[in-house]
């Protein structure tokens, strides 16, 4: 069955979101685009919240967020207990965010990473399983109130 991947950005991440949507489709995923839908200025916390709500509602198990640096939108996403959003600038951290942190949201900076690196990060994030083992208890502590 086709997996839905939620994706959202602010205006500064809009262009890279488009690139990543196409990449998701070419990899056989169904992107759920939660906006923004153009380059008009918006507030990144609103889009982090939209994506977090979609994951909490079970519309997607995983997601991708993009803002200019990736910093603001990852801070906002991680305010939701169910979200483990990993800001990545290279393929190794994208892979380790899955192996060690069981990250459910990949965050990229549209003004920081190039398209090719972003696509490779996305592929690593999607393809890498959680390693479990010693990481299970650590990840569980992240969800403590
Ligand atoms: C928008 O100008 C920019 O501040 C935002 O995309 C992001 O980089 C914030 O962390």
Plain-language structure description:
By secondary structure, this protein is α/β, with parallel strands linked by helices. The chain has six helices and five strands. A five-stranded parallel sheet has the order 2-1-3-5-4, sandwiched between helices. The site of D-ribose has 8 residues, from helix 3.
Radius of gyration: 14 Å
User: Helix tally?
Assistant: 6
Envelope shape: globular
Question: Strand content of the residues, in percent?
Answer: 15-25%
Spatial order of the strands forming the largest sheet: 2-1-3-5-4
Order of helices and strands: EHEHEHEHEHH
The percentage helix is 40-55%
The chain-level structural class is alpha/beta
TL;DR?
The chain is an alpha/beta fold.
Features:
145 residues; alpha/beta; 5-stranded parallel β-sheet; 43% helix; 17% strand; globular; binds D-ribose
Task: Give the secondary structure arrangement, pairings included.
Elements lengths: L3 E6 L4 H13 L3 E4 L10 H13 L5 E6 L3 H7 L7 E3 L3 H9 L5 E5 L5 H13 L7 H8 L3
Parallel strand pairs: 1-2, 1-3, 3-5, 4-5
Helix pairs in contact: 1-5, 2-3, 4-5
């Amino acid at each position: 069955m086709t997996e839905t991947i939620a994706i959202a950005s602010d205006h500064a991440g809009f262009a890279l979101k488009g690139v990543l949507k196409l990449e998701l489709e070419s990899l056989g995923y169904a992107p759920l685009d939660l906006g923004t839908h153009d380059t008009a200025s918006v507030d990144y916390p609103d889009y982090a919240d939209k994506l977090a709500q979609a994951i909490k509602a079970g519309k997607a198990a995983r997601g991708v967020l993009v803002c200019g640096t990736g910093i603001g939108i990852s801070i906002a996403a991680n305010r939701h207990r169910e979200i483990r959003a990993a800001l990545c600038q290279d393929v190794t951290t994208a892979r380790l965010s899955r192996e060690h942190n069981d990250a459910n949201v990949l965050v990229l900076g549209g003004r920081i990473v190039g398209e090719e690196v972003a696509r490779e990060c996305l592929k690593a994030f999607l393809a890498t399983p959680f390693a479990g083992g010693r990481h299970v208890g650590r990840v569980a502590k992240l969800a403590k109130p």
